[in-house]
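Hello Y.,

Per our agreement to keep a running log of every chain we model this quarter, I'm adding this entry. I've kept the format consistent with earlier entries: sequence first, then predicted structure.
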Amino acid sequence: MKSNILIVGVGGQGTLLASRILGALAEGEGSDCKLSEVHGMSQRGGSVVTHVKIAPEVTSPIVGLGDADIILAFEELEALRYTDFLKKGGTVVVNTQQILPMPVITGARKYPENIIGELKARAGKVIAVDAAAVAEEIGNLKTVNVVMIGALARSLGVPFEAIDAALKATVKPKLYEVNRVALERGYAYEEEK
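Predicted structure for the entry above:
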């Protein structure tokens, strides 16, 4: 597997765990993987970005502008904010959840409308997943990131057994079962047309 992936979200959404699962997947397939997390006020719901590069040999962990094969976004506005990193014809896998940033909450700004439409205009392919609803059905909102990893794995053609093994190698044993359900649901997610 060879891919440059930018994982974006807001603080507390689990971008780092998602990147570690992808790292374990790469390791299980015998690929090299480098991760780099960059964030602002992540503890206050600020933007969080994790760079993931997977290839036979990776020299730098940073995904440059126009260099991402995939943007994995845990929130719509964060997906839109980082589309300059997407290469031409790249894919965006986006959670349709909207988390209002402070300027929107205070009324200083408006949350943009039709973000999914804007993403479709900028990307080669957009996979929109209502991961928050799936996680709520499972009964654990903290599994949104794993739902998204499942959807990403399926879009990449990764066998379920391989991504499941990566999940098992990454999460604590007591959290594996609920996360496995989230992974299955994300992997099987059918986008509404």
